[in-house]
Design brief:
By secondary structure, the chain is α+β, with helices and mostly antiparallel strands. The chain is built from 18 helices and twelve strands. The longest helix is centred in the middle third of the chain and has 21 residues. About 45% of the residues lie in helices and about 10% in strands. The chain has a single domain, classed as Orthogonal Bundle (Cytochrome p450), CATH 1.10.630. The strands form four sheets. A five-stranded mixed β-sheet has the order 1-2-8-5-3. It has a three-stranded antiparallel β-sheet with strand order 4-12-9. A two-stranded antiparallel ribbon has the order 6-7. The structure holds protoporphyrin IX containing FE. The site of protoporphyrin IX containing FE has 26 residues, from α12, α13 and α18.
């Protein structure tokens, strides 16, 4: 549970066993932590930030002592500060703002897909899918299109993604991005534009606005939170379609199923496998004693296969599943702030992709990222089959 191999392989059988036999499971690896696998328990913990704090970080424990981050990001802030920060930042993620991005997102997706040719082997994860979320974030921030490739290189290096063309260390890339963000902020200080940075600079709740440091730390979080996650959803979602050709056929024949297919990909793939909390006092859960200071790892991927919620088809991939109350975006106070944007990106991607290509064939091995939290696809080679005689979805 503490190693990438667990997530890169098929964790479903282990999850099933844990949900059934040890839903609040102590493991002594990495200094010790509790693994939580049942849907109901993750909802319980996620909605009690006073008992289960995010302040010492949400990454899996690594055995090193953790203290609260002196310059916390939104994701590592507890209430009441979290509520205030989240209210301010939410101003940039209203449904109106997100929906208004659809034409830009469609143009970005089309531009990326224009480079894909039917019948020719191509690398899909790094070469195609990864370009979409990072360009959308750059566009959201108002970064000019000529900067996008540079922005992507810094962004990938700063989150540790191994593009063969990247020679920067993550520290150097983080520094370069900080300088770049500072310049964007300075430009917006002189003149506001129609972009997220301008909205966040003007955001005010109860007479309070974001400090410069808070804005900077949020811009960095945006890259970490919105980049690999969306890429992982689309790449692993595509593999789920390859593995279930009858489901792919249903989508090609009826693209109105794409929104529910995206929900099912989120549930089935669970692009973010877990997040961690830290107990602020002793808590009893299912007869187990969680002690103050201990780490609790919320295994969202396990909750998303919970038979108590998803019935006896929990292990199946069904693009028509409804309702689908998955926890792929987390739950409670810290539930994903970018979920509408992520849903929109994935929907538009598959609408455009399936209008052009109605067959996907894997032509080699799928190479995964060695990560416990977002064990995405590093590379996957595919051959695409051209869809015949269908107009692109508008
Ligand atoms: C498929 C794509 C995505 C998945 C699966 C995902 C998943 C998650 C999860 C599980 C959390 C909960 C964190 C916790 O429990 O502590 C989260 C938080 C967050 N996500 Fe996403 N995310 C995705 C895309 C995005 C995008 C596109 C953005 C922004 C552009 C974004 C921004 C955030 C932010 C800012 C938070 C922190 C919210 C808070 O702490 O209040 N995410 N995400």
């Amino acid at each position: 549970m503490h190693l990438p191999d667990f997530y890169i392989g098929d964790p479903a059988p282990a999850y099933r066993d844990l949900r059934r036999n040890s839903p609040v499971h102590w493991t002594s690896a990495n200094g010790g932590f509790w693994g939580i696998t049942r849907y109901e328990d993750i909802k319980f913990i996620g909605s009690r930030p006073h008992l289960f704090s995010s302040a010492k970080g949400v990454l899996m424990p690594d055995g090193k002592p953790r203290t609260a981050d002196p310059r916390p990001m939104l994701i590592t802030t507890d209430p009441p500060r979290h509520n205030a920060l989240r209210k301010l930042i939410s101003k940039g993620f209203t449904p109106r703002h997100v929906n208004a991005m659809e034409p830009d997102i469609r143009a970005i997706v089309r531009g990326v897909l224009d480079s894909a040719e039917a019948g020719v082997e191509l690398e899909y994860a790094e070469g195609l899918v990864a370009k979409v979320p990072v360009r959308i974030i750059a566009d959201l921030l108002g970064a000019p299109a000529e900067d996008w490739e540079q922005f992507r290189a810094w962004s990938d290096a700063s989150v540790g993604s191994a593009d063969p063309g990247i020679t920067l260390t993550s520290q150097e890339a983080f520094g370069a991005l900080t300088t770049y963000f500072r310049r964007l902020i300075e430009l917006r200080e002189q003149r506001r534009a129609n972009d997220l940075i301008s909205i966040l600079m003007d955001a005010e709740v109860d007479g309070e606005s974001l400090s410069h440091d808070e804005l900077m730390s949020f811009l960095h979080l945006l890259l970490v939170a919105g980049n690999e996650t969306t890429r992982n959803l689309i790449a692993l979602g595509t593999i789920a379609l390859v593995d279930h050709p009858e489901q792919l056929r249903m989508l090609v024949e009826d693209p109105s199923l794409i929104p529910s297919a995206v929900e099912e990909m989120l549930r089935y793939v669970s692009p973010v496998t877990h997040m961690t909390r830290w107990a602020t006092e002793d808590v009893e859960l299912r007869g187990r004693s969680i002690r103050e200071g201990q780490a609790v790892v919320l295994l969202y991927g396990a909750a998303n296969r919970d038979e108590d919620v998803f019935g006896d088809t929990a292990e199946q991939f069904d693009v028509t599943r409804r309702p689908n109350p998955h926890l792929a975006f987390g739950t409670g106070e810290h539930a994903c702030l970018g979920l509408s944007l992520a849903r929109l990106e994935a929907r538009v991607f598959f609408e455009e992709f399936l209008a052009r290509f109605d067959r996907v064939e894997l032509t080699g091995e799928v190479l995964r990222m060695r990560s416990t939290m977002v064990p995405g696809v590093r590379t996957m080679h595919v051959r695409l089959g051209a869809a015949s005689g269908k107009a692109p979805v508008r």
